[in-house]
Amino acid sequence: MKVTVIGDGGWGTALALNLLANYHDVTLWGAFPDYLDEMRASRKNSRFLPGVELPLELKLEGDLAKAVDQSEICVFATPTQFLRGVLKKFRDVPAFPGRVIVNVAKGIEIDSWLRISEIIREELGDVRFVALSGPSHAEEVSRRVPTLVTAASADPEAAKIVQQVFMNERFRIYTSNDVVGVELGGALKNVMAIAAGVIDGMKLGDNPKAAMMTRGISEMGRLGELLGGKAATFSGLSGIGDLIVTCTSGHSRNRHVGEELGRGKKLADILKKMGMVVAEGVWTAKGAYALSRKVGAETPIIDEIYRLLYEDRDVTEAIQSLMTRAAKSEDQ
Question: Which residues are catalytic?
Answer without folding.
Answer: 189
